[in-house]
Amino acid sequence: MFFSLAINPIVFSIGSLPVHWYGLILGTGALVGLFLAIREGKRFNIPQEFFMDLLLLGVPSAIIGARIYFVAFMWDDYKDNLIDVFKIWNGGIAIYGALIGAIICGIIYFRYKGYPFWRIVDICAPSLLAGQMIGRWGNFVNQEAYGGPIEESFLRDKLHLPDFIVNQMYIGDAFHHPTFLYESLWSLLGIALLMVLRRQKFVRAGEIFLSYFIWYSIGRFFIEALRTDSLGFNGSSGVASLIDGLWSPMKWLGFEQGYFDPAYGNIRISQLLALLIIIAAIIIIVVRRVTGQANAYYSDPIVSTKAAASEPVVPEHAAVTPHKAPQDVQSEADKAENEQRKE
Predict the structure, then answer these.
(1) Binding-site residue positions
(2) Which residues make beta-bridge pairs with 14?
(3) Which DSSP symbol is given to 235?
(4) Is residue 336 part of a domain?
(5) Each residue of 285-327: pLDDT tens digit?
(6) Cβ pair 20, 88 in contact under 8 A
(7) Which residues, in sequence order, are CB contacts of 302 under 8 Å at separation 6+?
(8) How far is CA 10 from the centre of its chain?
(9) Which InterPro entries match (predicted)?
(10) Does some domain include residue 342?
(11) What's the whole-number mean pLDDT along residues 139-153?
(12) Per residue in 167-194, pLDDT tens?
């Protein structure tokens, strides 16, 4: 016998305040990302306090951006009950909105600290994937962001998933694709890829961050079509056909697209956005190299302009005048006394 909710989304309660798995999982993802950033930042002598402050500012910015993005496309569901806009523990945050919020926060914070934008976001790229990888398990607990109906045998015999995942994927009256798991594993592979890529000597500043966008968006493009809760809009039939054509290799692997409500439109927003991001990231990499904007390498030292400005300025004559040891000064005094005696 299966239940509509195999895992209680509330871990425990402190008085009348419930503590949700969703929040704990998101918090864990943020801390793991912080650890990865601090560890890599040590290579460039960036203090860990810098990344800790970035986390304290970036997480709220990402959550606000993610919620605004989601609510904007689902306004009809919220306009008559505005209090639900703030109930993020029930789910309903969009990763692209989170990235927009985090990037805006980063631009302001990096400028304030005097660090170059591209150098710091390169360091943070694996952290972003780690947060997404772990955060998707919050969707698992909440039974959201899942895919279309699937046979139980597909989960057990083909994917060889453990019971706790299979049982949690029984939603309504059917089993569903664990799209949270697909995206989580894709993010894990992306972390490994970025960590290998950033050790290569040919990589320029900014290209790890842009590679993150390319990798994540490729996975998101294919996984998004499996889901049944996609945000969408009515667009060109030609664009819709192009997207379906690019996704068609998934059918060869035995996957079918999840139900997409025609009331939302004929194009899934995240799929179209993923394609645009892939194209834009590749163009930016090429343009930055051709125009010479990417003249710094990932492995080059990172220096804060604010830190450099605070260093004491050494006078020009002091820089070329050798420092005299006390014994040298005493020796010159003895020579002067001997000369006086001779006279």
Answers:
(1) 136
(2) 17
(3) -
(4) no
(5) 999 999 999 999 999 999 998 865 555 444 444 444 444 444 5
(6) no
(7) 44, 45, 46, 115, 116, 119, 120
(8) 26
(9) Lgt (IPR001640)
(10) no
(11) 92
(12) 999 998 999 999 999 999 999 999 999 9
Domain range spanning residue 49? 10-315
Residue 341: inside a domain, yes or no? Answer: no
Q: Which pTM was predicted?
A: 0.83
Give the position of tokens 């006078």: 315
Domains identified in the chain, total number? 1
Which tokens go with 337? 């006394």
Per-residue pLDDT at 1 exceeds 50: no
Residue 252 forms part of a structural domain: yes
User: What pLDDT digit, counting tens, does each position of 2-59 carry?
Assistant: 444 478 888 888 888 888 888 899 999 999 999 999 999 999 999 999 999 999 999 8
Measured at the alpha carbon of residue 79, what is the angle toward residues 75 and 67, in degrees to the nearest 5? 50
Neighbours of 220 (CB within 10 A): 22
What is the distance between the alpha carbons of residues 292 and 53, in angstroms, rounded to a whole number?
32
Burial of 28 (0-12, 13-18, 19+ CB in 10 A): middle
DSSP string spanning 133-181? HHHHHHHHHHT-S-BSEE-HHIIIIIS---HHHHHHTEETTEEE--HHH
- Decide if 70 contacts 97 (C-beta within 8 A): yes
Q: Which amino acid is at 287?
A: V
